[in-house]
Every structure is written in structure tokens, then in C-alpha cells.
Amino acid sequence: MKELFLADMMTIPKDDPVAFTFFTGYMAMFAASVFFFFERQSVSDKWKTSLLVSGLITMIAAVHYYYMRDYYAATGQNPTALRYIDWTLTVPLMCVEFYLLTKAAGAKVSLLWKLIAASVLMLVAGYIGEAFVPLNADGTAAAGATNHSVMWGVISTIGYIYILYTAWFGEVKALGDSSGNPQVIKGIKILAWFVLVGWAIYPIGYMCMPGGWLNTGLGWTSSNVDLFYNIADAINKIGFGLVIYSVAKSDSATAKA
Ligand SMILES: *C/C=C(C)/C=C/C=C(C)/C=C/C1=C(C)CCCC1(C)C
């Protein structure tokens, strides 16, 4: 049994792009964590917590990818529960990054809680939408599947739009501007683009599940759910961290000069 499992893991990546992204995703998250943890020492004190949080985000993801990768290799199914446990920990930590970036300009903890509340709404609704979609015994969409996924998808989008709005036009944007720090202003702008473009990949994956619009409309299957999620995670978790890293590096250099 154990040998068979290992053999499966060795053969799947070459003909299965989803498995491939689970394996590369795992290694990329792992390497990014090592990078962020080690680079902490190269930035000034006020940026060390931000880099620690970047490393925690990719490290939490790496551990979940380790398990999701094996779950997928062994069953060929979407590791939905593990996926949402990962996001429930990492998305609030991304909100912490926004808070830490704007803290020097006077961000209050209430900003952090509002962003976290919006992410919880987004993720709980998304989980109900995916995990409890009505399915037939053979895994195809049962009656009501489309209604279920659309309803919970819309509720989830409310949380997403709140975060998007806060980053582009709301408190995060205003605090960034009032910081008077060009590096912070630029960093917030790039992160806002990540939330607009990078995070928008997730609803595309969501709509590939049985009953989802891209499933019924274009015939995209549930393995595409993980393909989109894996690509989006690599872009967003590592990319977010690198933006923070570059803000921290350039601001530390300015402070020294
Ligand atoms: C590291 C993980 C991240 C940044 C995850 C982000 C997840 C989303 C932005 C998910 C959004 C969803 C919608 C906006 C509607 C459909 C359901 C979701 C949960 C896929």
C-alpha cells in the first residue's frame, strides 16, 4: 500500500498539471519562507515584523501544500478542507501586512479587525459554497448546485469587495497617502493591484466546480479548481511577501542614508 502510494506520487506530475502545481507550489512556498526569514536581518528594526509575517504566510502555505499534494496524489480529489484551513490562517495575516504598512501613519487596530472580518465572511461563504454543493453519487452536479454556488459565491464576493475597496479607496489608501513615505505609497498601490488581479483568480477557480458557471458554461472540470487556486496562491503569497520585502529594503536604505 505504501509503495503503491509513493509510485503514484512519482508518476502523476509528468502527466497531470494539477499535481505538478501542487509539487512546485509546495517547494516554492518552502523556499520563499527560508528567504523571508533569513532576509529579516537585512532590514531595519521597524520592518522585521512585516518580514516575519511574510515568512509565516508562505510557511503555513508550505505545510498545507505538503498535505494537499499528498491528498490530491492519493485521491485525485480537491483538498477543499485543507485549502480553506490554509486560507483562514493566511488571508488574515495578509490583512496584518496592510495594517503593519499603515501603522506608522496611524492605522488603528479596528482597521485590522474590519479587514479580518471581511476575509472571514469571504472564506466561510466560499467554503459553504464549495464543501456543501449538492452532488450526485458520481460527483456530478445535482439539482440546485448552480444556485447554491452562485448564492454563496455572491456572499463571499461582498467580503472580497470590502477588502478591495479599502485597499484602493478606503482607509488603507488614505493612511498610505498620509504617511508621506513614497515607498509605502508605492507598496500599497502594488498590493492593491494584487488584490484586484491576483485575488480575482480565485473566483475563476471556484466557478469550475460542478454546477459552477465555468463548469456548466465551458465544461471546465473540478480539477481546474485546484489549478487556478495553486497558481493564484503562488502569485499572491510569494508576490505579496516580495512587495513587502522591497518596501522594507528600500525604506531601510533611505533611513540609513
Ligand atoms: C493565500 C490565499 C489567498 C490570498 C486567498 C484568497 C481567496 C479569495 C480572494 C477567494 C475569493 C472567493 C470569492 C471572491 C468568491 C468565490 C469564493 C472564493 C472564496 C473563491
Automatic annotation (TrEMBL):
It is found in: Membrane. The keyword Transferase does not apply. It is a multi-pass membrane protein. It comes from the Bacteria. The keyword Transmembrane helix applies. PANTHER family: BACTERIORHODOPSIN _OPSIN, NOPA (EUROFUNG) (PTHR28286:SF2), PTHR28286. Belongs to the archaeal/bacterial/fungal opsin family. This is Bacteriorhodopsin. It comes from Fulvivirga lutea.
